[in-house]
Amino acid sequence: MEILEVGRQEIEGFLDREWKPVDERIFGRYDPAMWDVQRYALAAYEDEGIVGAAVFKIEAGLGKLSQIITAGHHREHGIGSALLARVEEVCRREGCHKIGLKTYLNSQAQRFYENQGYVVEGVLRRDLHGVDMCQMCKFL
Q: How far are the Cα atoms of 13, 27, 62, 78, 103 from residue 56, in angstroms, in the given order?
């Protein structure tokens, strides 16, 4: 056997053919579009410009929040909560059943998400750059 690095286009036919029976068995249907990824970015504005932002995607009925941040001098003013609420609104509108995210374990960020109704699904030891993280979610 030989394993080579190839361009994605070289394996598209193989992937479509092999994933079809798996998807039909697990999900009861095969629709390549159900795996399409929709990407979103939100910005919170105040007079001086952007004071917060969120980046997330939706894939296979799952919202995946990758970034949310508020400008340091605007924290504790509800901007993060408002951004997260809008993320949830978009995910509901697009038919998501759940939102997932990864954050630092035992952090202020983890407590923020818990206060918004998110729960820890698992602990990821020595994850990003060797730092302990946790996977969190909220069912919609």
A: 29, 24, 10, 19, 14
| DSSP string of 108-132, one letter each residue | HHHHHHHHTT-EEEEEETT-GGG--
What is the pTM for the complete model shown? Answer: 0.88
> Coil, helix or strand for 18?
helix
Is a pLDDT exceeding 90 seen at residue 34?
Answer: no
Is 59 a member of any domain? yes
CATH of the domain at 106: 3.40.630.30
Each residue's pLDDT tens digit, 48-106: 899 999 999 999 999 999 999 999 999 899 999 999 999 999 999 999 999 999 999 99
Give the other-Cβ count within 10 Å of 20's Cβ. Answer: 14
Domain residues for the domain of 40 are 36-139
Residue-wise pLDDT tens digits, 44-53: 999 889 999 9
Helices (H), the chain: 12-27, 79-93, 108-115
